[in-house]
Every structure is written in C-alpha cells, then in structure tokens.
Design goal:
mainly beta
C-alpha cells in the first residue's frame, strides 16, 4: 500500500552534472521527463521499523553532451 505519491513532469528540460574527479561536465536535455516518488508503508526488519521509498523516472527524446573527454586528453598529454 502506498502512502504518498508525488509526480513531477518537466518539458524541454536540461541538467548539467559535474563530478568531483574530473574537470568536465555532462549536459543532458530531454523533451519530456517524468519523476514519480512513492513512500511505502513502514516494515519491521530485525526489530527495527524501516521506511521505504522509491523514485522512478522516465525520459523521452534525450540528448547527452559530454565535455570532459577533451580535458582528459589534455591532462594525459601534459603528463
């Protein structure tokens, strides 16, 4: 049994992701993105009450651009 359901839909969205180990970043853009967050009924596991939540996502017409490949090549050539 689900307790809480939250749905978020995004149209023509972009996200830029940057890691801590490389200098570059990843840009992902999508025509439509949907996120569904569900909180489930708590259950007893090893004498402790544990909560459970799930996050489900779907993406339509996604494009990904990566910039860190050139910076990795430059770092390799400098060494």
């Amino acid at each position: 049994m689900l307790l809480v359901v939250i749905t978020v839909e995004l149209y023509n969205s972009q996200v830029m992701l940057r890691g801590c180990e490389t200098n570059g970043y990843v840009i992902a853009s999508a025509a439509k993105t949907s996120l569904l967050s569900c909180d489930h009924r708590p259950v007893w596991i090893q004498q402790q009450l544990q909560s459970k939540s799930t996050l489900v996502g779907s993406v339509e017409c996604m494009q990904v651009r990566v910039s860190f490949l050139l910076s990795l090549v430059a770092e390799t050539l400098d060494k």
